[in-house]
Structure formats: structure tokens, C-alpha cells
Specification:
- The longest helix has 28 residues, at 106-133.
- The chain starts with a helix and ends with a helix.
- Helix content is 68%, strand content 0%.
- It is mostly helical and 507 residues long.
Length: 507
């Protein structure tokens, strides 16, 4: 009873923070002609309500794809239609065809903010609460602390309730998938992840861990017996789930192909804006976009991404365990973010939410990663006028993590899950005695650097010769952090002896 009372207070606090952030500015506020993501979501409501389904993804006189054309999967379109139906009942002007373009008003802002708030409350927050409540061998205090830290993660709050998006829906469905798999409800887990993937195509970042974990589970059960039955059931579930989501578009192959072309446009280039991945960071020295064709960029990014994913995916397939699966979600999403094609700065959320799931296991590193991930989006947040919410939520999150997990006391090799790795170094093990002090010093240096760059970005005008000095600095420093985190998570996964013990339970 005490646990649920504390969880209720946690949810109320999380909702209060979300609504407070939503009172601020949003993407593209008062900035014609294209405005921003807020207008994109409103425009999708306009399109889905006023046009027949067969025109949603096609360029027509009523649907100019160059003006925020729909480029997310069918579930996003259906969600936009539901929101539009409600908007029509309140004020038809909000979604009137053509004439509503760029519509802005306080009542409309309240409506749009409420749609994000409700989506978060219905999909993401229940998944977080149930996930934390289901943590095994964990005290009530730790479960509540985990829920509080996850729900106060600034990155997702600032992007969904500040900048304006619905990331909590796709991430929430993915989290439901993780939750179902933790109970061995593999078919429900498959359905939940299919919903996530059909809401936002970026959920492909998580697809390989889901695939490898379930495939490895089937292998362990034996592909001549129960494993084959399970594999057949999962395959059937995935096919049916996709068929239901895409049903209105399945009447014509050209419809399907056009949706796919909208979902995966290769002409946009390797990356957008100042994203904290390897390609954007390298472009400071080598203008990859100028010297390499888009097709070659695509092949190069695919090859590097595939190679970086390979060790984790092989380990998860050979030794499937729930713990390994959660760490693989982090590692694979981070590999996609760092090396894949057409990456946005907001895509770091796909690595951040899986990190939230292991915050109770490695609180120090998880807190550090989540701070860096939010910092990496600073240029976007400043553009949207979200400096104050950024500063307050970052400080609040760090304070809560320090109070809940005493993170500075969790820096030993054992606490960071690096003990098996330290043993494998043999002669270098003595170096690990000073490891906690080194890690704490690096953390403090990192936080100080992020604080200084945040202040400079907000308060100092860059030199005229280097107008992008601060955004580029943020992206490069964040990228270096992410590369080190990628190495760290891969070391934990590949040297994890707990996986081999856990996977015996599956078989």
C-alpha cells in the first residue's frame, strides 16, 4: 500500500513538471513561413481530417509535401486524425483545410499541449510505473526512486512538452514491449513493439535487440520443438500486427511504396542540424556531404553501423537474457545514433529511455549519460526559447539522482559492472584501485564543461567568423561522450558473466 501511495505522488510530481514546462514556448512559435514541429503536428491533423486516406502521403494540390508533409508511419497518422476529430468539435478553424496554416492562439496551444499530456499519461507513464514496480530483488524505496528518476528525465520532457512532439507514445509502446518480455509474454511484447515501430520508424533503433533476444530464446528452446512453435507464433503475430496497422494502405502497392518513400527519404542527407553523432563531428574537418554522393553516404553509414552492432547482437542471440536485452537496447540505439544515416538530434532519446531502464543497476553512469543526452540537444532547446526549463529540469534531475541513489558512492568497478572486465586484464587490475576516483573526477569535469558551454551558448554572441561555434562545440563534446559510453556499454555486455547464468533459466 505504501509503495502505491509513493508511486502516486511520483506520478503527480512528474505531471506537474510536464505541465509547467508546457507553459513555455514551443518549436517555431511565431516564426513563419515554416514555423516548426508544433505546426507540423497541427498540419498533420488538418491533412488527415480533411483528405481521404489515399492522399495522406501523396503530393496533391491540397497536400503540399514540401510543407510538413506526413513522413511518419500509419499509427502517427491515425493519432493525428483522432486529435483532429476532437479539435473539430472545439474549434473547426484549428484544422480548416489551407486556411489554418500557421494557426496560433492560446486556446489552440492549450489543446495541443493537452494531447501530448494525455498521450504521455495513457501510454508512457503507466509503462514506467509498472516496469519499476516489477523490478526483482529491489526494495520499495529503490523502485520508487527509479520511477521518479525516469519520469523526471529532462530530455523527454523538454522535447515532448517543450519543443513539441509525441515521442512518449512510441517510446511508451517500446517500454510496454520490454515489460511484457520480462514476464515471458512474448507475443504481447511483439505486438507492443510493432505498435512502436508503426508509430515512429526510428524505433528501428530498437528492432535488433528485440529480434535477437526473441530469436535466441527460440534457439534455446530448440528449433525442432517448442522453439519452432514460439518462432512461428511470433512471426505470425508480427505479420498480423503490421497488416492491421497498414490495412487502409494495402489496397494498392503504389500506396505502400509511397508511404515507404516518405518514411525513408535518402535525399535529406547524412544528418540534420548540429547533431552529436560521428558524421556531424567529422564534417568540421572533412565535408563528407560535399565529397561523397548520397548513395555512398548511405552505404558507408550502413556498413559502420552494422559493424558496431554486430558484437552485441551476436552475444544477445547466443546468450539471451533480460538483463542483456536491456543493455543491448542501449548499445544498439547508441550505435544507430552515432553512425546511421539521416539522424536528428532528438533521436538520442531512443538511447536515453533504455538507459533509464537500467538506472537502478548503474545509477552513476546512467545519470551521467542522461545529463549528456539532454545537453546534446541544447542548440535546439535554445532555438525554442527553453533555456529556463532546461536549466531547472537538469539541476532537479541531478539532485534527485544524487539523493535517490547516492551516485558518487557507486563508482567502483563492481558498481559499474566492470569487475569481470577488470579480472580479464590480469596484470592491470591494480589500476582499477584508483578507478572510482578517476571516474568521479571525469564526471565533475564533464558536468562543469557542460555548465560552462550552456552559459556561453545562452549569454555570449559567437565571433562573426564562427557563427556556429557553440552549437558545434556542444555536438562534438557530446559525441565524444557518446563514443566513450558506447565502448563502456559494449564492455559491460561482452564481459557480462550474469548473462550466461540468466540464459540457463530461459532454456
Amino acid at each position: 500500500m505504501e509503495k502505491w501511495s509513493l508511486m502516486t505522488i511520483t506520478v503527480l510530481l512528474a505531471l506537474t513538471v510536464r505541465w509547467t514546462v508546457s507553459l513555455g514556448s514551443y518549436s517555431g512559435a511565431g516564426k513563419p513561413p515554416m514555423y516548426g514541429d508544433y505546426e507540423a503536428q497541427r498540419h498533420w491533423q488538418e491533412v488527415t481530417y480533411n483528405l481521404p486516406i489515399r492522399q495522406w502521403y501523396f503530393n496533391t494540390s491540397d497536400n503540399n509535401l514540401l510543407y510538413w508533409g506526413l513522413d511518419y508511419p500509419p499509427l502517427t497518422a491515425y493519432h493525428s486524425f483522432v486529435c483532429a476529430y476532437i479539435a473539430k468539435l472545439i474549434n473547426p478553424d484549428w484544422i480548416a483545410l489551407h486556411t489554418s496554416r500557421g494557426y496560433e492562439s492560446q486556446p489552440h496551444k492549450l489543446f495541443m499541449r493537452t494531447t501530448v499530456f494525455v498521450a504521455d499519461l495513457l501510454v508512457y507513464i503507466p509503462a514506467v510505473i509498472l516496469y519499476c514496480s516489477s523490478l526483482k530483488e529491489t526494495s520499495t524505496k529503490k523502485k520508487v526512486s527509479s520511477a521518479l528518476c525516469i519520469l523526471l528525465y529532462p530530455g523527454l520532457i523538454l522535447i515532448d512538452h517543450g519543443h513539441f512532439q509525441y515521442n512518449s507514445v512510441s517510446l511508451g509502446f517500446a517500454l510496454w514491449g520490454v515489460l511484457y518480455l520480462s514476464y515471458d509474454w512474448d507475443l504481447l511484447g511483439s505486438v507492443a513493439f510493432c505498435l512502436a515501430l508503426n508509430y515512429k520508424q526510428m524505433e528501428l533503433y530498437h528492432s535488433l535487440p528485440f529480434f535477437c533476444y526473441l530469436l535466441g530464446k527460440c534457439f534455446k528452446k530448440g528449433l525442432k520443438g517448442k522453439g519452432l512453435v514460439l518462432l512461428t507464433k511470433i512471426a505470425g503475430t508480427v505479420v498480423v500486427s503490421f497488416a492491421v496497422c497498414w490495412l487502409p494502405f494495402c489496397t494498392d502497392m503504389e500506396q505502400i511504396m509511397q508511404v515507404l518513400r516518405r518514411l525513408f527519404p535518402i535525399d535529406r542527407g547524412l544528418f540534420e542540424d548540429k547533431v552529436a553523432n560521428i558524421w556531424c563531428s567529422l564534417s568540421v574537418l572533412i565535408k563528407i556531404k560535399n565529397i561523397v554522393s548520397p548513395q555512398t553516404q548511405l552505404k558507408l553509414s550502413f556498413a559502420v553501423t552494422f559493424l558496431s552492432l554486430l558484437p552485441t547482437c551476436i552475444k544477445l542471440t547466443v546468450q539471451p537474457s533480460l538483463r542483456g536485452f536491456k543493455f543491448a537496447l542501449v548499445s544498439c540505439a547508441l550505435s544507430f545514433f552515432l553512425f546511421s544515416f539521416q539522424v536528428h538530434e532528438k533521436s538520442i532519446l531512443l538511447a536515453s529511455v533504455p538507459v533509464c531502464l537500467i538506472i537502478n543497476e548503474i545509477p552513476f553512469m546512467a545519470t551521467w549519460f542522461l545529463l549528456v543526452s539532454t545537453f546534446s540537444m541544447l542548440p535546439l532547446l535554445l532555438k525554442d526559447g527553453l533555456l529556463l526549463p532546461y536549466a531547472v529540469t537538469m539541476l532537479a534531475f541531478l539532485s534527485v539522482c544524487m539523493a535517490s541513489f547516492s551516485i558518487f558512492e557507486k563508482t567502483s568497478a563492481e558498481d559499474l559492472q566492470l569487475k569481470p572486465f577488470s579480472h580479464s586484464l590480469k596484470g592491470y587490475v591494480s589500476w582499477f584501485k584508483s578507478f572510482p576516483k578517476i571516474v568521479r573526477s571525469l564526471f565533475l569535469l564533464s558536468v562543469t564543461l557542460m555548465g560552462i558551454l550552456s552559459v556561453l551558448s545562452a549569454a555570449v554572441h559567437p565571433p562573426q567568423r564562427l557563427p556556429d561555434l557553440f552549437p558545434v562545440s556542444v555536438s562534438i563534446i557530446s559525441c565524444l561522450h557518446f563514443l566513450l559510453f558506447l565502448v563502456y556499454f559494449n564492455v559491460v555486455i561482452l564481459w557480462d558473466s550474469k548473462n550466461s547464468r540468466s540464459q540457463k533459466k530461459i532454456s
